[in-house]
Automatic annotation (TrEMBL):
Name of protein: N-terminal amino-acid N(alpha)-acetyltransferase NatA
Its EC number(s): 2.3.1.255
Keywords: Acyltransferase, Transferase
Transferase in keyword set: yes
UniProt domain N-acetyltransferase: residue ranges: 1-158
Keyword Transmembrane helix: no
Catalytic reaction(s) noted: N-terminal L-seryl-[protein] + acetyl-CoA = N-terminal N(alpha)-acetyl-L-seryl-[protein] + CoA + H(+); N-terminal glycyl-[protein] + acetyl-CoA = N-terminal N(alpha)-acetylglycyl-[protein] + CoA + H(+); N-terminal L-alanyl-[protein] + acetyl-CoA = N-terminal N(alpha)-acetyl-L-alanyl-[protein] + CoA + H(+); N-terminal L-valyl-[protein] + acetyl-CoA = N-terminal N(alpha)-acetyl-L-valyl-[protein] + CoA + H(+)
Pfam family name, one: Acetyltransf_1
Record-stated family: Belongs to the acetyltransferase family. ARD1 subfamily.
Residues spanning the membrane: none
Assigned GO CC terms: NatA complex
Length: 184
């Protein structure tokens, strides 16, 4: 498996992966919007044949009244490639890019409360915490979720997850060798 930054020629296959994996689907212009606005934030996972088996579509929120923070618009891994750690690797890469390129302080996302597998992934594996609260009809694709509740999740990234396993002397200048800080 290879994780790499998404390129414009990947966008159609990212959308195809989205259609196969998720009930929230986006028009192609939405992928282009992300790709043109924040090209360094979206990543794909490809198999040994170069076929896209997963992706993360990410952006920066542009709220002048809040600290810089990123948002995960969509994360999907094909069923045949789940439970291999690809979602975590994709999220780690996107989070790292948000920190390095935009000085992000946290990453947010929305997840359907009925999606137990995703809630487990975000809360237990990726250490996202409950954020602002429950949202109704927000954070989903444009055609869906009018009556479906979603939860906001937030991961504080001031001390990035991708550095928590390095020896303290390796990252003492950037994060004091510490582990993640979490928002409750």
């Amino acid at each position: 498996m290879n994780i790499r930054n998404a390129r414009p020629e990947d966008l159609m296959n990212m959308q195809h992966c989205n259609l196969l994996c998720l009930p929230e689907n986006y028009q192609m212009k939405y992928y282009f919007y992300h790709g043109l606005s924040w090209p360094q934030l979206s990543y794909i996972a490809e198999d040994e044949n170069g076929k896209i088996v997963g992706y993360v579509l990410a952006k920066m929120e542009e709220d002048p009244d809040d600290v810089p923070h990123g948002h995960i618009t969509s994360l999907a891994v094909k069923r045949s490639h789940r439970r291999l750690g690809l979602a975590q690797k994709l999220m780690d890469q996107a989070s790292r890019a948000m920190i390095e390129n935009f000085n992000a302080k946290y990453v947010s996302l929305h997840v359907r409360k009925s999606n137990r597998a995703a809630l487990h992934l975000y809360s237990n594996t990726l250490n996202f915490q409950s954020g602002v609260g429950r949202l109704w009809g927000r954070g989903c694709g444009p055609q869906h979720c009018q009556d479906t509740s979603t939860f906001t999740r937030r991961l504080m990234v001031e001390k990035p997850a991708w550095r928590q396993h390095l020896p303290a002397e390796t990252c003492s200048m950037c994060c004091d060798g510490g582990a993640l800080a979490h928002d409750g």
